[in-house]
Protein 1
Amino acid sequence: MAEQRTESAGRPRQPRTRTRASHSLESVLAGAVEILDESGAQGLTIRALAARLGGGVASVYWYVSGREELLDLAADSVLGGIFDQIADVGSDDPIDDLRAIAMAMFDTIVDRPWLGAYVLRDTGLQVHSLQLYERIGEEVMRLGLTPRQVFHATSAVVGFVIGTAADLGQEPPAAVVSGEVTREEYLARIAGEWRALDATAYPFINHIVGEFERHNDRDQFAAGLDLLLAGLRLQSESAR
Amino acid sequence: MAEQRTESAGRPRQPRTRTRASHSLESVLAGAVEILDESGAQGLTIRALAARLGGGVASVYWYVSGREELLDLAADSVLGGIFDQIADVGSDDPIDDLRAIAMAMFDTIVDRPWLGAYVLRDTGLQVHSLQLYERIGEEVMRLGLTPRQVFHATSAVVGFVIGTAADLGQEPPAAVVSGEVTREEYLARIAGEWRALDATAYPFINHIVGEFERHNDRDQFAAGLDLLLAGLRLQSESAR
DNA sequence: ACCTGAACACCGTTCAAGT
DNA sequence: ACCTGAACACCGTTCAAGT
């Protein structure tokens, strides 16, 4: 605000005398998310972040207590975007709503592989994580279960989402991320290794290798989620 | 083997002239697991491992390509212990067998918080992870489903297990691990924070805070697993 | 074939000093 | 109140040299 000043006419819009950098928690987290998206959790160093913000390393510590808290807060800030996606969710079927919320979470996490590991870790720190847990729980509360069942079912849905999403998210091992190898080539290579196994010793692997080779992460997630939700619906029906 | 020599009588059994350290992949992984159990993934540095093995840092690199592979292989070596626990599993109900296998996995992972993040990451490297995936898949194959359903259901079970186990495993935040704070105190503190929330804005949190405060990780896991397995049983029945 | 210490190129975090 | 550069105490990994 002290910077505000009317531009004098004709002067090119160059930054004038180099002032010292000024941040905010928002800009720090935004910078962190940019780096995370570009190069993953490994790439987010305090030095890299300070460089991007155009300041010194120590200034980051004014806003966060350390790297771990930075990761937690950066992840939580991204999670806030989910609420826009699920603003319209609210049908007369709680199970349908749960599916919609879970799929939105999956979509958000899956193309941010770094996100899965840092979401829903510290609800005291992570406001959006807490609100999402609350949102899911409110749908489960509509199913007519006991408090204990509500608690367990909500935790199961959340656990399944972040568990499998984190798992799928970390799948590509560096070479895929960097673009040296396509996802198809990567899957084909593993499928090849699996086909080389003894089919007598590995009947299941042999049985599903074709499915694995052409599988789609989103469909796989949706199928597993539907199994869980089917079990939940059953519990709900027998409770009435 | 060149070391072998008959002890001359009366001489104390001290190590004689200091010979240079000699390792094996097994001893390297065993040392790594010891450190991981004592101080978690963060505590496993190459230097700490080398010191425990009584050798130099660089010798570790003869057996593993780097720290990541060390973690992967250490995790997989622990996973091998599960097969003893599930040796007797094999009833006429595949769902019961799946529950037994999943619970064994949970029990193994839950008191080794570091394990969850490194299990089932690279089946080309991790033999036991592959065999466990196979073992679970073989049970699912008995349910009369299509290959696609078998693939999806097996992945869902595995995803749920490692997802929630990893989640529960990482729950205690340093202070609990070090023994400064008991689990009860930790849960009570969070419960206190939750009770301080506005009950109108957080009806679900308010509804389950009592359950959360006295919850048991194993029961919570079992309850979620049962929902998933109930959905799977339903799918199996409608397939026949 | 396997082990070694030293060196390299990084890290996260702290601190005394600035504005 | 917020930012800075330099310093500290670590890291993982490599390498030339040993046995």
Protein 2
Amino acid sequence: MIKEKYTIKDIAQMAGVSKGTVDRVLHNRGKVSKIAFEKVDKVLKEIDYRPNPIARNLKRNKIYRIDALLPDPKLDPYWIPVNEGVIEAANEFASFGILVTKHFYNPNNRISFSEQSQKIVASKPDALLTAPIYRKESQALLKSCCEHHIMSAIINNLLDSMDRHLFIGQDLNQSGRVAASLMDKLIDRNDHIAIIHINREPHMKVKESGFKDYFMARPDSKLTITSKKFNSTEKKGFATDVSQFLENNPKISAFFVTNSKAHMLVEALLELNKKDAIIIGYDLLAENITFLREGKINFLIHQKPKRQAYLSVSHLAEHFLFGKPFPPQEFLPIDIITTENVHYYL
Amino acid sequence: MIKEKYTIKDIAQMAGVSKGTVDRVLHNRGKVSKIAFEKVDKVLKEIDYRPNPIARNLKRNKIYRIDALLPDPKLDPYWIPVNEGVIEAANEFASFGILVTKHFYNPNNRISFSEQSQKIVASKPDALLTAPIYRKESQALLKSCCEHHIMSAIINNLLDSMDRHLFIGQDLNQSGRVAASLMDKLIDRNDHIAIIHINREPHMKVKESGFKDYFMARPDSKLTITSKKFNSTEKKGFATDVSQFLENNPKISAFFVTNSKAHMLVEALLELNKKDAIIIGYDLLAENITFLREGKINFLIHQKPKRQAYLSVSHLAEHFLFGKPFPPQEFLPIDIITTENVHYYL
DNA sequence: GCCAAAAATGTGTTCGAACACATTAAATAA
DNA sequence: TTATTTAATGTGTTCGAACACATTTTTGGC
């Protein structure tokens, strides 16, 4: 295998035919005689020809449309970095003819998700990127995409029965286990642990399972783990609820918050004058980082929302532009964040 | 700003000139009258023209050469993933006309580094990628690159007085601090800590500083931290040395190993029947992972050698191909690895 | 006002792949 | 055998930027 760049013209010359014939062989377009085919095929087998993706792309000269359907970052700050990741990738690939359009839905309103879904499918983009908060609606959307031959990519959380869609995110069960193993290093034998869901979304149950599984696997474990779901979105009601919960469970001193809202719990605990609680939460929101740096949150797990979004868009783009293959599921590492390394993740 | 793709031809038409004139304006090639310049300039200011990088690249049609000068992975397994990262990126960009050549040097022999250096510079590649283990020799190499207009990228460890070279790696001082903060969570008040250098390379001192700084910053800290350097490369001599060291410092129960050789220490400790020592080390070598999973290493810090290499090559490639800018220094996150999340980093 | 030199502007070709179209060779029917 | 369809093959153009080259316009000198 000689290291050189071969062109169609080269191959044609080597095989003693014209570039048109080589082209027909390469693309199985027929209208090639056996003799000609074999001459070309022989050369192709010798040289490991790889078409120049740049020339190919220039010729195609197509504008690829990727539509992103995401929760409105104004309504939940968790989605701000996701939005940034999409924008970054969009800018990077804009001059390559990749056109990214963003659509926001209200994360507290399934109807808004469905409405936007239909609009997007109707506009027939080349690919769709979404965070499937609502299971049923999301599955309907993905099915619809399949039917209309729209590529689909998913971030944040996996849906069950979901093959052949690009997924980029974390293994949420394992993420719960990581949280548990960190908790394990921090607590004493007689600590009681609470798993706190604040405005629970379905996939957070998976984190809870992982967390519990870790401790269940240890035969010596006699820990008490209580799971609690808080629904209040207003601060006041939430603080009262927390107070109530702690009165009923006075022994609890360690908390695992299953989403980005650990800072809310910290604030509530501070109001109740309950200090030195052990807290593990998710995501690098400004409030969380502040508490992490102050030692009021012990560990954060980084779900890399920005990277999820960036990677999805760039995988799709590079697939369209250069035919790059990508794995159907890409599980990102579960990053453990402390005061000391948080800086490098921002 | 209308969202459309403009070509030079479009601009020429809009400005009422020929594409040649537009080209001269875009590239400041002179030979343009004031009137023509202003006509073109006006259009350019209106439309935010970005040249099609694909077409540009096709026209250039140049083969870019990147030479990588790295320690032989056969002589130190730490460099295996670095090698993999280079290969992966090389394959990815091969069809774009990026030609990556690897050169290995003996990490225990500065002469072999110098010799290879000279060969590479003499062959005048477009860029050089290296891991600068030897300070003086590396600085000479980088200077030489500058003079010959060879781009240079560096991974693994930073050299001082090193501007305008692409660096991709971790902040080693901070990495020591991360190790310390993890140690802090694991130890008791009266534990004694040892910092262990096995076959020390100069930059490992930086990790030690970071580690010590963390504990110094705490006014309440009365910890004893001993630093020890082991030089033996053979197992037998090493175990004896460790034994000796422990006899002299019987109170030491926690170890921070500043490179990928934590597994050697674990083995030595096992031979001495010293169990439940606390150990924090670096890098996901197979041996380290085994001990991590068995609970004999508490934390590993992942230096992402593969990613460092991959990123360097792809940054250089994308710079050459598409004119992508890159930051002079890119500090990668300092990943904390436990039994629970190690799987996702492999 | 005319010619030569210089400046300004326009035209044409290239890169490699893709595909439309033109041309030639082989196969079939009259 | 000749006309005519069909198969096989070759040629030419396009994508957008870059640059070589050709052409036109302007300027200065007499």
